[in-house]
Design a protein that fits this description.
single chain; 327 residues; alpha+beta; Endonuclease I-creI; 3-stranded antiparallel β-sheet
Amino acid sequence: MCAGRPRINDNSLYSNPSFVLLETIREELQNLHCKQFNDGMLSIFLGRDKNYVTKKYYKIRCGKLGYISKDIFLRIKERVTDHFYKELGCITEKIIKTFEDYEDYLSRHKYIRSEARSKIYHPNIKSDFFRFIVTDEQRYYLGIMFSDGYIIKEEDEYRKYYRIGLKLNPDDEKIIDRLIYILGLNPGCKHLYEEWQKHNNKLVKIRYFRIHFANQQMAADLISWGVIPNKSNIIRLPEFPDQEDYYPFLMGCFDGDGETGSTRLWSGSRKFLEDIKLNFRVPNEIRYRESDYGSAWGLSLGPKLFNKMIASYPNSLARKRKQMREW
């Protein structure tokens, strides 16, 4: 059984670049030596363990890409080339073409791999959810991503890619559940974590829910809005076409980093709060707070702006929806 992955048909196997590469080598070897090469014989010829080809095809049938890393590919290429020059005095055009095709595949693999994996784990994912922000729900969850979301840039020898994540305390689980639903994510990507943090010279157990996934289109869209890697201290207020568009966005920010029972919004970025203060003519001053949980800047938004935020998105956190009296 291919646990956790959809089993694909043989047509997908036959079009897989790794399958095409290995089968071309097998075919040309059989033509050269006039004998059959089973999976075990082919694996050993390539300098791998005898089950290498069988396992590779099994993974492909189970929905994985089954790609051959650049390092292993170059070893295989060298081994095949040396053998054909020794036995035939040249390497066949078919093998040369297949090597070229696989080298091209590896150069594009960072994009192919991410898209394919994303669809395997999250077959219903709405990759373009943050492309055009036109609804209040999109604006609200963009605000959530500004406050408690993150994007991590990762890379290795073969690819560069981004991972998207969101961490919230257990009281705010409904936000993560709703985001999983509207993004079309696999609910299994949500996990509860516990860790110890130092607070007032004491270790305190912190519990939180987290989702963590890779989707390059969505990451690129979030980055274009300002949810950049290591954003905490440098975020700025994004631009929306209308003033009313900011209210659900700010409500999302407040549900993430707002102070319950007040209108005070906290942020690691003073510039972000300065943008809000200027854009909405907030008279209050920005203040700094040091804390074991992380120092931050705070701005009291005032009742007029805060009440507009509450009215703009009725599905925000109930515990932070305290209507403020306007004087």
